Every structure is written in structure tokens, then in C-alpha cells.
Amino acid sequence: MSDHPAHQDSPDARPAGTPAQHADDADAQAFRELLRGLRVWDVALPSFDPATAPTEPLPLFRQWLREAAEAGVPEPHTMTLATADAAGTPSVRTLMLHDADERGWHFASHRGSRKGRELAVRPRAALGFYWPAVGRQVRVSGPVTVAGPEESAADLHHRSTGALAAALVGRQSEVLGSVEELARASEAAWERARREPAAPVPSWTLYVLRPEEVEFFQGDAQRRHVRLNYRYENGRWAQELLWP
Hints:
Blueprint: H1 19-37, H2 57-70, E1 78-84, E2 90-96, E3 99-101, E4 104-110, H3 114-121, E5 124-131, E6 136-146, H4 149-157, H5 161-169, H6 179-195, E7 204-209, E8 213-218, E9 226-233, E10 236-242
Antiparallel strand pairs: 1-2, 1-5, 3-4, 4-7, 5-6, 6-7, 6-8, 8-9, 9-10
């Protein structure tokens, strides 16, 4: 059997130094220069004296989220949620905080979604909040519990019509055949959500992360960042400063 020459359009077949390779190199260099040229905290940042922090993290978190909203941070209640599957493979996504109270930090999803499946086998998670206008981050980690069906339903039906419509579409994280299929399902869900504002969504589940560790990070333009970490141990909160 004779060998066939490689197709000339194949990237592996390009000889070094071709115009296409030079263009790729130029794009890569331009991207690196873009990253290096982006400004970080090119605004006046608030100060934070950890000596004035409360003995528990919840009041400080509520204060920082409120101040982020007042500073014009869009959607300051969005957060990053990290979970892991049975093998320990992590996954991360952005979603909305629904509440933060003495029980913990609340969020919701379908039980059959990727996050729901992972929390079923590994009921621990981490949350991350970032508010660039004030140079602040908050990290929260701990075990996650599932609220009951009544509380989960109440969480959903206290939200917007759009939130209910999205929940009614369901099938989160499943493979989608086409955008047309999604459009049809979404249109039907919107119609039902408007017609039945209390329509049940049995898979909708409210989760509560009970914090064991909460870190508050205040950025500083001279990189003297303040990091205050709360750890829950022996029935009380302990505080410690961390090197930036």
C-alpha cells in the first residue's frame, strides 16, 4: 500500500515559518500583551481594618455585598460555585446567591443538574464572590445540606417569572439537540409560567452551604492586601490574618 501525502491544510502539515504560523505567533503575542496591559484596581479602593471586624462572618459579608452594590458592581449577588464528582474531579460555574443567614449561604438548582449530581455524592462545596469596583473577594466553604420540598418550592416561587420559566424547561446539563429545540421548550415554559405562577417543579432544590471557613480579601493597589479568615471550630468562630 502506498503512502498518501498529508493534506496541505492540516495544521500538522504546515512547515515551520509559514505565514499562517507567523499569524498564530502574532496573535499569541498580542494576547499576552493584552493580558499584561490590563489595569487592576485602577481606582480608589476602600480600606479595611480587620480589628473592627465582627466576631462572626455573616454581618461582615452582608455589609460587603451591600457596599459592592452601592459602588455600582453589577449583579453583586452572583458567585462562583465549586463542586466535585465522586472521583474528585472539580467543576465550577457562576450562579445567584438566594440568601445568607444563620443557617448558611443559599443557592438552588435542579437535582439532576451536574452540580446537583455532584452534591449528592460529595455534599461539600466552595463559593467565591468578587467585586472588582471595591477590590474585594469573599470565599466560603463547608458542607451542603438539602432543604425540604416545601422550602425549595417557596424559594422558586418567590423569584421572577423568568426564573420559573427557566426551571420549567428543566433538563439542565443534558445534551441539547439544537437551539430550535431550546426555543420551543422555552416558549412553552414561559406560557405556562405566566398561566400558572405556582406551577410545581419537583426537581428544583434549595441547597444551604453551612460555612466552616470564610475568608475576606481586601485588595490594595500596592499589593498589601488584607486577608481576614474565619474558621469555625469548637463551636465558635476564630479569626486569623493570612499573608497575601
